[in-house]
Amino acid sequence: MNHEVLAPAGPLSSQIAQLFWIFVGVAAVVYLVVIGFLVAALRRRNEANARTAVRAVSVAVGITSVILLGLGLSDFFAQRVIAATPKDPLRVRVTAHQWWWEIEYSDGQPSRRVRTANELRIPTQRPVELELTADDVIHSFWVPSLQGKKDLLPGYTTRLDLVASRPGVYEGQCAEFCGFQHAHMSIDVIALDPEEYSRWYDAQLASAPEPSDPVALHGREVFMGSTCVMCHNIQGTDASGSVGPDLTHVAGRRRLAAGTLPNTLVNLAGWIRDPQAVKPGTRMPATQLSGEDLAALTTYLSELR
Amino acid sequence: MSQIEQTWADAPGLKGWLSTMDHKRVGVRFVVTTLVFFALAGLLAAVMRLQLARADNHLVGPDLYNQLFSVHGTAMMFLFAVPVMEAVALYLIPLMVGTRAVAFPRLNAYGYWLFLFGGVMLFVVFALNIGPEAGWFNYVPLSGPEFSAGKRSDFWAQLITFTEVSALIGAIVIITTAFKMRAPGMTLARMPLFVWAMVVTAFMIVFAMPSVMLASTFLITDRLISTQFYNPAEGGDVLLWQHLFWFFGHPEVYIIFVPALGMISEILPTFARRRVVGYAAMVIALVAIAFLSFGLWVHHMFTTGLPPLGMSFFTAASIMIALPTGLQIFCWIATLATGKRVQFATPLLFVIGFFFIFIIGGLTGVMLGATTLDSQLHDSYFVVAHLHYVLIGGAVFPLFGGFYYWFPKLTGRMLSERAGRWNFWLFFIGFNVAFFPMHILGLQGMPRRVYTYSAASGWENLNLLSTVGAVTIAVSMLVFLVNVVVSMRRRERAPDNPWNASGLEWATSCPPPAYNFMAIPVVNSRTPLWEKEFPVAEVTGLPEILRTTLVTRLHDAEPDHVAILPSPSIWPFLAALATTVMFIGSVFTPWAMVWGAVPVAITLIGWFWPDKEETARMLSIEVKPPEGEARVEALREVLS
Amino acid sequence: MFSRFPELAAVLLAVAGVAGCEREQRRFSEPAGDSLTITTPLSDIKAGGPAQVAAGQSQAATGESPYDENAFAISEGQRLYEWFNCSGCHAHGGGAMGPALMDDQWLYGGAPDQIYSTIVQGRPNGMPSFGARIPRQQVWQLVAYVRSLSGQLRKDVEPGRPDAMQMRPAPSQTLEPRNPGSTR
Fold first, then answer.
1. Does any domain span residue A265?
2. Which one, of A228, A244, A248, lies nearest residue A236 by Cα?
3. Within a domain: residue A6?
4. Segments forming the whole domain that contains residue B413
5. What dotted CATH number matches C52-157?
6. Which residues from chain B sit within 8 angstroms of residue C170, using beta carbons?
7. pLDDT at C40
C-alpha cells in the first residue's frame, strides 16, 4: 500500500509515525495495567484495605498526570518540527473543486507556470509548500505516506508542506466530506528524482502536440466542435474552458477522474461516453457521440502527453 | 382507593394517556421512544455496513448513502444518546431524591411530546427523500443554500430546534427537581452520584445548546432569507459554523457520557456491596469534566489551519480531561477492591464491558487530542472507531447495565439473566469485531463518509470483517428485545429491592405507585437503605386532596414549603402539536413563525388557565396566618 | 396583503409536502437524448422586422419542463449559468448586453420549450446557439433556472442565495419579477 500512515515515505510523516508508536506504546501499557487492577479487584477474595486503596488512587492520579504531561509535551515538540517553515520550497497552489484537484505550480515567471489536475509531481528531497484553497465547499488534502492532512476552505488559504524522501507514487484522498463523489476524489503524488522532475516539468510547459494522424485530427475536431470546450482547456488550441480539469497533458496521468479509473483507452472512452455511470453526480455530463467520433476523440486525447 | 391514590390517579383510556403528568409514565414512554429511534438508526448503519462490505459495491448509491450516514448520526446523537439519558433521569431522579414528582410536570410532558414529533419528522422526511445529507454536523458551505438544494438541510436544522428545546426543558426540570425537592436530610453531600451526574449534565446542556441553536438559526436564515453569516464573499465565514457547532458539539458528547458515569456509580457499589470510594473526589471529577469539556472544541478543527500555538492550548485541555475521567475509573476499581466479595449479574457485566471498551476509546482520544497525530487521523476511520468506542463503550454499555438494573423497578419483573449474558457477550464481541478494525483502516488511509472504495485500496477485508461484527451487534439487540418482551409477561414479580441496593428508589414497590412514596422519608446517610434503620423519620401532614410535595432548601434540604403540583392536562400535548406546526412551517416560509405563534399562544393560555375545582380545593387547605393575640403568640414561638 | 399569507402559506405547505418527492430527486443522468430533445417551430421574427413582445406569452407554459419542480436541477442550472458565462451578457438576471431575465418581458417567449429553443438554436442580435455545446439535460437545467429568475416557479423549489457576492436577491425571496419595466 502506498497510502499508509505507518509506512512513511518522508521525514514529516516519519516524525508523525514515530510519535504515534510512542503514544500506542504508552497506551498499551496503561491499558494492561488498569485492566489488570480491575480483574484483580473482581477476583480477589479478601477485602482490600480502604486506606491503601485511597493511597493507590492518589498514586495512580499522580502517575497519570505525569504520563499525560509527557505525552502533551512530546506532541508539542513534534508539532514544532513539522510546522517549521521550510527553506526554499517548491511552491504549488492547489484549489479543490467538487470533485477534482486543480494544481498550479507557482513560478516567478508566469510563462513558466504549469497547470494540471489530480496529479502532483514533485522532486524528492525538496520541501514542497502547498497553498491550499477551495472553490466551492470544504475539502481536505491527505496523502498519508507523506504528511498529515490540511483542509481547503473557501475564503481561506491554508498551507501544507510535503517532503518525499524517495521516488514513488503516493496516493491520497479528500478527507472532508464534500458531496456526492467525496469517495472518488483521489490525488496521486508522484515523487521523481530531481533531474527527472525537471524533464517532466519542461515537457509540461509545452503546448499540446499536434495530432499525428487523420483519426487524431478528427478527434481534435470533435473536441472543438462538441461540449468539451465549454469546460476544458488544452494549451495550444482554442479550447480554454476553465471550470474543468486541464487536459493539455492528460495522457501522461496515472489515473482519470481524480483517481477513479486507471488511465487506459477503454476507461477514457467509457468515461467520456457516460461519466455518470462511473461517478454518479459528477459535474461532467454525458455527451452524445457516435462510436466513430468517440474513438477519434479518445485517440486524440491519448496523444496528449 | 385511598385519598392519595385518587388524587394521583390518571384518567383512564386515551385521554389519560395523553394528559398524564406522572414522571414515571412520561419517563418510560420517553425511554421506549428513544430506543425505537436507536433501532431505526441502527438499521441504517446496518445498510451502510452492507454497502461497505465489498469494494465498488452498488447496493446503495452516493445520494442515498449520504442520507444514511447523516440520518444515522443525527438520530443517534440527537434522538437517542442525549434524550435516553434525560429520560432515565426524569424517571429516576424523583425516586432517588425522595419526592413525589418532577418540579414542572406539564413542562416535562411538553418536552417529551416535542421530542417525539421532532424525531418522527426526521424519519418521515428521510422516507420522503428529504433526509439530511451533509453529515450529522452539517458543515457549511456544503449544507448551505448553494450546495444543498431543496429542503434537506432545513429539516436538519429544524430537528435541532426540536431536540434542543426538548433537551433544555429536560435540563431545567432536572436541575430544579434535584436542587429543590430532595427529601429532608438529603444534603448535597448525601445526594446520589447519578443525581449529581444529571445535575452537572443539565448545566452543560444549558450552556451548550444555545450555541448550536445559534449556528442552526444562522443556517436557516442563510438558506431562507439570504443572510450572509456563512458566505465568505460577503463578509461571512465558513469556520464560524465549525466554532459554533463544536462549542456545542464537544460538550454534547460529555452530556452523553456523564450520565453514564453516574449510572456506573449507582450500579457498581451495589455489586461491590460497599459505598463508592472517594465520593467527594467523584463529585469534583464530574464538575471538572463539565468545565473542561467546554475548552476542547477546537480539537475538531485541528486541520483547518488555525495558528499552532492556539491549537496547543486545546491539545493541553483535551489531554487534561483524561485526568478526572481516570480518577473516576480508579475510584471504581478501588470500590470493587475494598468491598465484600463481588456478586456478578448482568448489570455488572455491562459495567465491566464499559471498562474494557471505554478505556481504549479514551486512549485513542488522547491520541486524537494531540495535534500532530490528529493531522493524520482526523476524518479517517480511526475517528469512527474512536467515537464508537467512547460512545458505545462509555454510554451505551452503562445504559444497558442500567436497563438490566432498573428494569425490575420500572416494570415489576426481572430480566432473564441467561438472555442477559447472551445479550452482553454478543454485543461485546460484535462491537469489538465491528469497530476495532476501523482503527487499522484509518491508519491505512481510509477517509470517513465514503460510500464506496476501490478494490485496489486494500481495504476490503477489514471492511468485510467489520460488517460481520455489525450484524452480530444487531443479533444482540434482538436478544435484548426478546428478553424484554418475554420478561414482561412473566407471572413472577420482582421484590422491591432485588439487588439489595442502597438508594431511595429501592424503598418503593416495583413499579412504584403514582405518588412514589406513601410518606416522604427523612434521610441521614448517603446510603439510606443500608442503614440499620430506615426510614429514620417521615414527613406527615402533606395535604392529600391535591397533588402536593415538599420543597426543601438547596444546600441542607431543610423543609421549606409545600408545593402544589399541577393536575393532568391535555394542553402540553396540544401545545407541542402547535409548536410542531410552527417549526415545520418555518422550513418553508418565515411567516410561519408569525402565524404559527397564534395556536401556540392559544394552547399556552389553555395550559395555564386555572381550574375552578382545583382552585376551590387549594383555598380549602389554605391556613390563614393568625391575627391579633394569636399572632403575637405564634411569633414568640418561632423566635424562641 | 397580509390576509393572503395564511392561505398562501397553508397551500404552500400542503403542496410542498406532497410534492416533496419530486423536489428532492437528484437525477444524475437522464435516458439518452430523446425525451429531452424537442423542436419548437421557429417564430416569425426576422432580422430587421418588428420585435414581438407579447405580454401574456409567459403565462401559459406550452411545453413540458422536466425540471420545474426539481430543486437540484435548478441549483445545477444556477451553477451552469455562471460556468457557461450566461452572466457575461445577461448579468445575474438584470440584463446588460443581453436582455434581462428577471422580468416578465420575453422576446422569444418565456415558456419552457421556448426558452429551451432560444438556448439551443440561438437568436438574432447576439444569443449564440448552444445546441452543439451543451447537452440536453443541462439545457433543461438552465431553462428551469432562468424561469426561477423571473419568479415563475414555486418558492420552495427556487434556489436560495449563492455563496458569492450578492448581485441580486435570491429567487426564493422574490415574490414577483423584479424589473421597473414590469407590467405586473
1. yes
2. A248
3. no
4. 3-488
5. 1.10.760.10
6. 145, 226
7. 57
Q: Which chains touch C (3 or more CB pairs under 8 A)?
A: A, B
Smallest Cα–Cα separation from A257: which of A276, A234, A238, A236? A276
pLDDT for position C52? 57
| Residue B567 located in a structural domain | no
- Predicted confidence (pLDDT) per residue in A79-133, tens digit: 999 999 999 999 999 999 999 999 999 998 999 999 999 999 999 999 999 999 9
Q: Report the domain count for chain A.
A: 3
CATH of the domain at A264: 2.60.40.420
C-alpha cell at B249: 458539539
| B246-267 as b/e: b if 16+ CB within 10 A | bbbbbbbbbbbbbbbbbbbbbb
Same-domain check for residues A126 and A102: yes
> Are C138 and C147 spatial neighbours (Cβ–Cβ below 8 Å)?
no
Q: Is residue B199 part of a domain?
A: yes
List all residues of chain B from 107 to 136 with a beta carbon under 8 Å from chain C.
125, 128-130
- The span from the CA of B393 to the CA of B108, in Å, is 29
Measured between beta carbons, which residues in chain B are less than 8 angstroms from residue A280? Answer: 61-63
Question: Which three cell numbers mark A185?
Answer: 476524489
Please give the ipTM for the structure prediction.
0.97
Contact call for residues B397 and B358 (beta carbons, < 8 A): yes
Q: At what angle do helices B105-127 and B152-180 cross, to 10 degrees?
A: 160
- Residue C89's CB: how many other CB atoms inside 10 A? 14
Q: Please report which confidence band the pLDDT of residue C15 belongs to, taking 50, 70 and 90 as the band edges.
A: low
Residue C38 has pLDDT above 80, yes or no: no
Cell of A92: 504549488
Question: What confidence tens digit (pLDDT) does each residue in B324-367 have?
Answer: 999 999 999 999 999 888 889 999 999 999 999 999 999 999 99
Domain residue limits at A72: 11-83
* All chains having 3 or more CB pairs closer than 8 angstroms to chain B: A, C
**Structural domain contains residue A4:** no
In this prediction, residue B632 has a pLDDT band, given cuts at 50, 70 and 90, of confident
Q: Is residue A3 part of a domain?
A: no
Written as nine digits, the cell of B390 is 467512547
Does the pLDDT value for residue A66 go beyond 50? yes
**Concatenated DSSP letters for B197-251?**
HHHHHHHHHHHHHHHHHHHHHHHHHHHHH---TT-GGGT--HHHHHHHHHHHHHH
Interfacial B residues in 213-232 facing C (CB < 8 Å)? 222-226, 228, 230-232
Averaged over B34-53, what is the pLDDT? 98
Domain-ending residue, one of A31, A55, A83? A83
Whether A195 and A225 map to the same domain: the answer is no
Provide the mean pLDDT of chain B. 96
Whether residues A189 and A99 share a domain: the answer is yes
Interface check for B331 against chain A (CB to CB < 8 A): the answer is yes
Q: Do B104 and B572 form a contact (C-beta atoms < 8 A)?
A: no
In a domain, B234, yes or no: yes
Tens of pLDDT along B587-629? 999 999 999 999 999 999 999 999 999 999 999 988 887 888 8
Bridge partners (DSSP) of residue A170 are A189
Say which of C5, C6, C159 has its CB closest to residue B149.
C159
Q: Is B273 left (phi over 0), alpha (psi -120 to 50) or beta?
A: left
Query: What radius of gyration do chain A's Cα atoms show?
Result: 26
B83-109: pLDDT as tens digits: 999 999 999 999 999 999 999 999 999
Q: Of A185, A205, A225, which residue sits at a domain end? A: A205
Residue C3: predicted pLDDT? 38
The total number of structural domains in chain B stands at 1
Query: First CA to last CA across chain C, in angstroms?
Result: 16
Cα separation, C164 vs A45, in Å, equals 71
Summarize pLDDT for A234-251 with one digit per residue, the tens: 999 999 999 999 999 999
pTM: 0.94
